[in-house]
Specification:
Length: 263
């Protein structure tokens, strides 16, 4: 249980879905959590869940803002260091996607996907590099199985491209930072229960009934007979951040129940 007893984690997109799951899971073992998202109410609710897991409230820092803002990224890192005095692990998890076919995709949609999914992560990481060097920490990028294959939901090309860029980013980080004792790895989830497809991204999945029906269908298609849960990703993130993964650098772990090998 003391796996991460000295480690401070900064987890982007921790107000919802996979990031929330990572935060709640790590609340059992981490020294501190810096949590961030745009939705303040959801972020407070995640904090409550982390406190229920045993982490004291003063070990949880909440920062509300949009990661596409350079000023917000700067203040997020400054606040984290100001509060905890150190940073060990950055989890670049925040992401979005609004499917649009290549033939009709707007430049605005393309830019939003790239800005949120890769540019923000790239420049946030740049700001934390001095701090993870100081702790010989690590960076964990949440990509997707779709970085190397196409989605059954049509129109996900720009999303896939942003995740392929995330994979390349991890490899670049691993090479550049290994001499400083800093590791970088990617986690590539398949379909995980979250709010991702229930926003305005896929209007047909917006309500509870249609989303659950969609998950049931996908569970039947999966060799493991289920869709992924947030905990499935969280346990892998915790492992990659731990000393047990000290020789894993520049790698990626697919978390999809075996669905990917069928593509
Ligand atoms: N769920 C899946 O099936 C799946 C599969 C493969 C990969 N992924 C990846 O997993 C990651 C997490 O997704 P999820 O499924 O957990 O989705 P989610 O439930 O929709 O959560 C997305 C998170 O990202 C945050 N976010 C989005 N845009 C942001 C911005 N501009 N600034 C700051 N925060 C922003 C959201 O904050 P607010 O809610 O506060 O706005 C939220 O906390 C994403 O990178 C996604 O691509 C998901």
């Amino acid at each position: 249980m003391d796996e991460h007893k000295d480690r401070v984690f900064l987890i982007t997109g921790s107000s919802s879905g996979i990031g929330e799951g990572i935060a709640v899971h790590l609340a059992k073992t981490a020294a501190g959590l810096s949590l961030t998202g745009r939705n303040n109410v959801n972020l407070e609710a995640v904090k409550d869940k982390c406190v229920k897991e045993g982490l004291s409230p003063d070990k949880i820092l909440l920062s509300v803002g949009d990661l596409t803002s350079r000023d917000f990224r700067k203040s997020l890192v400054e606040q984290t260091i100001g509060h905890f005095g150190r940073l060990d692990v950055l989890v670049n998890n925040a992401g979005m996607g609004k499917p649009m076919p290549i033939s009709t995709e707007t430049e605005e949609n393309f830019d939003e996907i790239m800005n949120v999914n890769i540019k923000s992560a790239y420049f946030l990481t740049q700001l934390v590099i001095p701090y993870v060097k100081a702790t010989k920490g690590c960076i964990i990028n949440i990509s997707s199985v779709l970085s190397t294959c196409t989605s059954k939901i049509p129109g996900n090309c720009s999303y896939s491209m942003s995740k392929a860029a995330m994979d390349a980013f991890t490899r670049g980080l691993a090479q550049e930072l290994a001499p400083f004792g800093v590791r970088a790895n990617t986690v590539r989830p398949g379909l995980i229960r979250s709010n991702f497809l229930r926003r305005d991204n896929v209007p047909s999945l917006g309500n509870e009934g249609s989303y659950n029906k969609f998950l049931d269908t996908r569970a039947k298609e999966n060799p493991s007979g289920r869709v992924g849960e947030q905990e499935d990703v969280a346990t892998v993130v915790s492992f990659l951040a731990s000393d047990k993964a000290s020789y894993i650098n520049g790698g990626d772990i697919v978390v999809d129940g075996g669905r990917y090998v069928q593509y």
